[in-house]
Amino acid sequence: MSIGLIDSGIGGLTTLCGCVKAFPKKDYIYIADTFYAPYGSKERGFLKRRTAQLVERLSELGAECVILACNSCSSSTLDENFPLPVIRVLPPAADALQHTDGRVLLLATPVTINSPYVCSINSHRLTKLADCCLATFVENAAPDFSRIKPYLQELLLPFGDYSGIIPGCTHYVYLEEIIKEILPSIRIFDSRASVISALNALSVSTGEGAVKIVITGETKNDYNMLLTKLLEQNTR
Ligand code: DGL
User: Which CATH number is 93-188 given?
Assistant: First the structure.
């Protein structure tokens, strides 16, 4: 039995990396749905149907639970029931607001920003910013994410006095070091810690530490190399 993960591409590898570091003896199966990427500008109804199909597929492949390692899928399926236990990756806005005094920027895909989940979070300190391109830029720039720095610099320019930022798309987690270079004093809040504690609570069976990657469409990215690089970095 294994832990399934879903994303549109390389973004969810950042979640997978956190899980492998926390639980190296579990088995994982990761679906990169590059055939339908990007997810962030799709209709919510499409993402509901596609997520259900992929959860079903992971179940057939032997997953005992599934991590929706994608904020776009997670925030689009909050009212859906699945045949397996599902852990959702969602922007940790409450945590970010609790641990900062100043303003917080939530940067995410259009479908996440416009989701009922994000619309229900209201604070005068929270700014919500939808970006339709950044996940695709990350996908195309990998493994050299520094190529995105000029775009990110321009995007983040108005938020120089903010206290916190939430990379509300798993693709953006690759950009954390670049965000720190652009905004050195900002605190970054991502959802890996909450995914790990949710996974811990599920008591998933122990395996051999195997990682299987399934890619549905074309890609130029080397997933095993990217995961190895993430695992070598001194982060979660
Ligand atoms: N990584 C995904 C997310 O967290 C999807 C990005 C995309 O395909 O647009 O939202």
Answer: 3.40.50.1860
